[in-house]
Design goal:
- By secondary structure, this protein is an alpha/beta fold.
- Helices cover 54% and strands 18% of the residues.
- Among the domains are: 104 residues, 3-Layer(aba) Sandwich (Rossmann fold); 153 residues, Heat Shock Protein 90.
- The protein has eleven helices and 14 strands.
- α9 runs antiparallel to α11.
- The chain is elongated and about 110 Å long.
Length: 368
C-alpha cells in the first residue's frame, strides 16, 4: 500500500522540491499552504506522516501540531517539523507537543527521505505491536472466561453425577442384603432412573464438546413437527407419563433452516425443563412466530410459578444453577442451549412473570 505524506509549507520552492522528489521515490504526496488547510486535509485524508513547517502565516506549526494531537482521528500521525530555527527551546517545544523529529532548512532531499522512511517504519512497527497487544489481550480475556466456565462446569457436572451415582450405590447395597423379592422391582426402577439421569448428563457433555469443536455446520430446511414428535415420543415419553404432562402443539410450523440434531437437543432441554419445573400437572404450549428480521421465534410456555428478574438473569449463564425450595435445575442444559443456538446464528431468552409461568424461546433463520 502506497504511503501518503502531507507537506505543509507556505514557500512554493520548498513544496516543489519535496513534491517532486518524494513523488519520484514512490510516495503519494498531498500539499497544504497554511495551518487551517493542513488541519482539514489531515483530518480528511489521514496521511501516514506530516512534514510541517513551523513559521507560517496565520496559525504556526506548533499550534497546528497541538490541534492535530488533540483530535482522535489524527493524534497518531507522526509529525516532522521543518524549520530554520536552531534554538533548542523551540525544538523542545515541538517534541513536547508530540512531534517525532526536526529537519533543519535548507532542506536536503536525501535527509528528508531518510527521516521520513525511518519514522514510517517506526510507526508501522508500533502499529504491529499495538495490534499484537490487542490480540493477546483478547486471547487472555477469552482464556480467563473459558477457565471460569471450566471451573463452574466441573462443579456442575460433579454435583449432577454425584446424586444418581450415590443412589445407585445405596440401592445396590440394599439389593445385596434384601431378601424380599417385592422390593426388587422398586429398587431396579430407581437404579434405572438414576442411570437415565447420568446418561442425559453424559449426552449433554458430548453435545457441548461437539458444538465447541465444530467450526462449520451444514444447515438445511428442517421439519420442526417431526423433530418435536421424536423428542416427545422417544426421549420424554417416560417423563410425560410420570408427571401426567399435557403438550399443546400448533397445527403448522414455519420452516427454518438449521441443523436438525442440534435443534432436537434444544427442544429436549426446553421441554424437559418445562415438565420438571412447570405446574403440577405440567401443561406446556408450543408455538412459533416469524419476526421482521427474517428469524423465526420458537417458544414453549409453561404453567409454572414463574421466575424473578434476578433468577432470569442467571438462567443462560454458563453452568449457573438456580436453587428453589422444591426443585433444583436449569444448570447444564440451558447453558448448552445458548451455545448451540448462537452457533446456529440465533439467540435465546425468557419472558416470565411470577405467578404466571415462563416462556422460553430461541430463534433460527427462516428458510428463504
Amino acid at each position: 500500500m502506497q504511503d501518503k505524506l502531507l507537506i505543509v509549507d507556505d514557500i512554493p520552492a520548498n513544496i516543489s522540491l519535496l513534491l517532486d522528489f518524494l513523488t519520484d521515490v514512490g510516495f503519494k504526496v498531498l500539499v497544504a499552504k497554511d495551518g487551517e488547510a493542513a488541519i482539514k486535509k489531515a483530518e480528511y485524508a489521514r496521511p501516514s506522516l506530516i512534514l510541517l513547517d513551523v513559521m507560517m502565516p496565520g496559525i504556526d506549526g506548533f499550534e497546528v501540531c497541538k490541534r492535530l494531537k488533540s483530535m482522535q482521528t489524527t493524534q497518531n500521525i507522526p509529525i516532522i517539523f521543518m524549520t530554520a530555527l536552531s534554538d533548542t527551546v523551540d525544538k523542545v517545544k515541538g517534541f513536547s507537543l508530540g512531534a517525532v523529529d526536526y529537519i533543519t532548512k535548507p532542506l536536503q532531499a536525501e535527509e528528508v527521505l531518510a527521516r521520513v522512511s525511518a519514522h514510517l517504519n517506526l510507526r508501522k512497527l508500533q502499529e504491529q505491536l499495538e495490534n499484537e497487544i490487542k490480540i493477546r489481550e483478547t486471547y487472555a480475556a477469552e482464556l480467563e472466561e473459558r477457565n471460569l466456565e471450566l471451573k463452574s462446569f466441573a462443579h456442575t457436572v460433579a454435583h449432577d453425577l454425584r446424586g444418581p451415582l450415590t443412589g445407585i450405590m445405596a440401592l445396590s447395597d440394599r439389593l445385596l442384603t434384601n431378601t424380599e423379592s417385592t422390593q426388587l422391582v422398586k429398587y431396579l426402577q430407581l437404579i434405572s432412573d438414576s442411570g437415565q439421569k447420568m446418561l442425559e448428563i453424559i449426552n449433554a457433555l458430548l453435545l457441548l464438546a461437539g458444538v465447541s469443536q465444530q467450526n462449520t455446520i451444514r444447515t438445511q430446511a428442517i421439519d420442526m413437527k417431526d423433530i418435536i414428535n421424536q423428542v416427545l415420543e422417544k426421549r420424554l415419553d417416560y417423563l410425560l407419563k410420570e408427571l401426567q404432562g399435557e403438550i399443546i402443539l400448533p397445527d403448522n410450523w414455519p420452516t427454518a433452516t438449521s441443523y436438525a440434531p442440534w435443534v432436537e437437543e434444544i427442544w429436549a432441554n426446553y421441554l424437559s425443563n418445562g415438565l420438571k419445573y412447570g405446574g403440577r400437572p405440567p401443561k406446556l404450549e408450543l408455538g412459533a412466530n416469524i419476526q421482521d428480521d427474517k428469524m423465526i421465534r420458537f417458544w414453549v410456555h409453561d404453567n409454572g410459578a414463574g421466575l424473578s428478574e434476578p433468577a432470569q438473569a442467571k438462567l443462560f449463564t454458563p453452568f449457573t444453577r438456580l436453587h428453589d425450595d422444591d426443585v433444583e435445575g436449569y444448570g447444564l442444559g440451558l447453558s448448552i442451549v445458548r451455545q448451540v443456538v448462537e452457533k446456529l446464528g440465533g439467540e435465546v431468552g425468557i419472558e416470565s412473570i411470577e405467578g404466571k409461568g415462563s416462556t422460553f424461546y430461541f430463534t433460527l433463520p427462516i428458510l428463504e
